[in-house]
Batch of 2 targets.
Target 1
Amino acid sequence: MSIEIVFAGLSPRALTVEMALAAVDSPECGAVVSFSGVVRNHDGGKDVARLSYTGHPSADAVMADVVPSAAKNALGTADPAASQAAPPVRIWAAHRLGPLEIGDPALVCAVAAAHRGEAFAVCSAVVDAIKAGVPIWKEQFFADGTMEWVGAESR
Amino acid sequence: MLIRYFAAAAASTGIEAEHLQLPNGATMADLRTELARLHTVSSTDHAPALAQLLERCSFLRNGIAVKDTQLALDTDDVVDVLPPFAGG
């Protein structure tokens, strides 16, 4: 089964699930799965006021690499009976950079496929791969005026 | 060589980059030891000292991820210090 990366990259502008869904839409696809990772108002028991994401200069290139790679791995373990003639799995994935408020989408992914098995598997794998492998950093600002670089503190 | 710091590493050291002179044949492990020696105190409350942060950092040498701590470095290398990724 082939893969079509409609988009995989970073965005300094606001993301919406709707833009991702519209981008992967195809009459050949019977299943569309989307994910939106949004900024929540708490972390580790503290009230979060806002966030800021920054990326390494290579982050766009890393996104373009890990998204198809994760999708291929996921399809390798998905329905082995899936036909070679199936339409391509269409993927749109973006990570936001810059300042974000509570409720803003930070990571949005939509995957359209002929059937739901591939769509669920690929969407989940792509989101996991972006979180694990793309050099993006999160600065978290708490309601009490303190802040932290997520992942940098000893836990 | 040029060492570039990002995110929490830049906040901790208070600088975005610095030039270091290491002996010929110095390895990635030697560079880590030198960075820990130079940066024992954080310049901010928001991030630990680089000496502590280093063990959770990954490194790029001239844009390529370093897997081998015994990798020999060149004097004109650019090494990026990347704190733990936190996308999503």
Target 2
Amino acid sequence: MRLELAGITKRFGSLVANDGVDLVVEPGEIHCLLGENGAGKTTLMNVLFGLLRHDAGEIRVDGETVEFADPGDAVRRGIGMVHQHFMLVPVFTVAENVVLGFEPTRRAGFLDRRRARADVARLSAEFGLEVEPDAVVESLPVGIQQRVEILKALQRDAQLLILDEPTAVLTPQEIQALFGIMRSLAAAGRSILFITHKLKEVMAVADRITVMRLGRVVGTARPEETNEADLAAMMVGRSVELVVRKAPARPGRDVLELSGLTVVDERGVTVVDHVDLRVRAGEIVALAGVQGNGQTELAEAITGLRPVTSGSVRVDGLDLTNATPRQVIRAGVAHVPEDRQGDGLVSGMTIAENLILDVYDQRPYARLGSLDLGEVRRQAERKLVDFDIRAASPTVPVGTLSGGNQQKVVVARELSRPVKLLVASQPTRGLDVGSIEYVHRRIVEERDAGAAVLIVSSELDEVLALGDRIAVMFRGRITGVVAPGTGRERIGLLMAGMEEADLPPSAEGEDGAVTALDLT
Amino acid sequence: MTRTETGPPPAVAPATAVEPGPRGEPPAWARLARRLVEANVAVVTVLALFTALVIGAILITATTPSVLHAWSQVGSAPGHAFYVTGATIGDAYGAIFTGSVISPSALGHAISTGRGWTGAFNPISETLVKAAPLILAGLGVALGFSTGVFNIGAQGQLIAGAIAALYVGFAVHLPIGIHLPLVVLGGAAGGAVAGFIPGILKARTGAHEVIVTIMLNYVFLDLLTYLLTSRPFQQPGQSNAISRTMPATARLPHLFGSTLRANLGFVIALAAALAVAWFARRSTLGFSFRVIGANQRAGRTAGMDVRRVTVLVLVISGALAGLAGTVTLSGTDFFLSTGYGGNIGFDAITVALLGRNRPLGVVLGSLLFAALDVGGASMQVATGIPIDLSSVIQATIVFCIATPMLVRELYRLREAGGGSIQLFMKGWSS
């Protein structure tokens, strides 16, 4: 099937999630849609699959303009989708799941199990998808469950298969197996639209690559014409230049010391892999990398929100390995979490209440287990002014504020304690330009006041503008620590997984790559 | 979701829009008018009550033989049919009121003769007696709900509290000034222990509190049955499953003389409501309860101990249910029997829902439910209409409150702008 998306635009209120997106998938092609979280990939797929209605543009299947009112329409036109979260009935067998919704029946409406099994066996053989038709889905490993999802789409005769971040839940071996399946499907003339933010996978499997950023298509390439560094730069680059005014750092003693820090997540995947990193008082270390390479987990391990598997976290000499979040906070660590609405704020509670989430039981807010509401309000009123939070009063629910003002509430709370170490994850994501400048200025002020600062950001411009040193993460490892003057290409290579040692000596002839010695 | 064409927005603003006032806000009368036609908490609650009364009236009409008889002859005497219907409904609701609040005729009689005060005030006294345990158990359930912990075990905690209070009652001999406070504390402690069990299981193992508390209800029910036939709880010389009785020093004093059953239990319930209101709004622990109820992840990130809060919520919730068992035992019953507590622990869930988890709401909801129970019994005696009508009215009120959308559609209300009604049972499965 030849699929053509022309000028697809989708708005949510004032937010443009897809802005004139063009995309062509040829028959028998594995087409990768590459972009960071929030780039608009999933919105585009939901439009294509009939889950969302686009505001402008056309969808064409084999040259014919189509309108999908719901996923049923899309399925009838031969489009199948494997969602990131599987849509399977865990207690049913593979065969039952595959035929669900299109059950073959015998007379009097009895389910024809034999035919269901035969269908599954035939499809499995045809495309090399080994699955036991009688196995109960919940007993199968995730990789096999995914095959069941693919079989489901094939059973409905999908000519184009959308795979939404299919590798996120798989082990490396399962990923290789999936790629094999994808290739055999393509060889059989089926088209595949593969959505991901992982560069290695794209290079390994794609026939063609389309890169999206902030709702737009920023480029199309063939893997043989491009490389991971270019793709990384395309994904994370930003059109607005950021300028942060700051004096040169005057680093002091080591405050944050990570040695051999390793985190294995719930799925058993090593997401942070023997990281050694030091952040000194009075300096900002920016942690760069394409999202999903362990930066979030690293920040969570430091702040006590995620168990450390091995290695250690020390803050100002104090061992905080596997400490509770409260112990970490009391040790002088401020944390601006990545997901401010999920982890940083209680949206139904007032600004004043959100400002004391971490100190509600301490003076001057509390005495003998009782809150001093007057003091809570007075302090909040002062912080509205001090931190430039635009709100009618401290008693409005924080959820009614704009994203920028919500973030200022988080920043105000975290910086109102004595701070030795500030950990800020994606501190300016989704903010307007004014708020971005404000947050950056506060971070630099905190540095100048002597705090050690660790910024996690997937915005390369932010990393370059803020960092006094830049550490690059790839697949849980730190691939290099460089100075902010380092060229984008060099950082791009590190983000793509090249080790710093493998890179040629700094070609730019400037102060790049000088601080590698700081990496112990 | 399906839109076939992208048309321009309608050029004419909806006719219901109110012109903005000088300060950009609609004038006060317009705001009031809007509040009355939007589905806010007060409006929905009042309309829920109204709907329940209408449905009750329809049931009375459809099931009372005299009314049906009048309608079978509606051709010959249409006026009579309407008269009988109206009179029957009026009598029934009148009987609920006089049976649960005050009887004007009995009051008049008492004023004119100077005697029979007891009869005049007995209905309200009975309502207070019935409301006290509902308030206490309802507060416990509401505190749990607003913290995101679903304590369905008030019934079992109530029984545990009553058992503990009874033991302190008969096993200790002290003057009333010391004994009675000890009994009350003992009852609260008994409920707290019963709440601690699901709390620690949830915090340590992740066992879902709904399952555990429901099952513990049966455990405590059967524990009571066992204790009632064994020493030292069984009444000496009795072969029936009946406990020893509370000595006089362990009984709650009457509020308005010995002939009216209203007792200190109601005062304890009101004090508990005030305490819970203070706790939720002004205490640091209550603050952490609210944060974790609203967004557990934010609480954890800010350093709150989610497990500790989980245990404490169930302990406090259980203590309040234990107090409910204590005030029924020490206030009116004075001994325990099998199946003690009736349905209080489950009505408490309803009352918490009706009161939207707020202390004042729980107090008012409990008074309404108690009045319907007490008044329903009087109605059955006075008019022959079964007491089940009260249950239907109670159920309809709860049904309407639980489905605000239904009330909104029924009365064509508009969606509330701010502070709209949210069902609290979010995160049921979490």
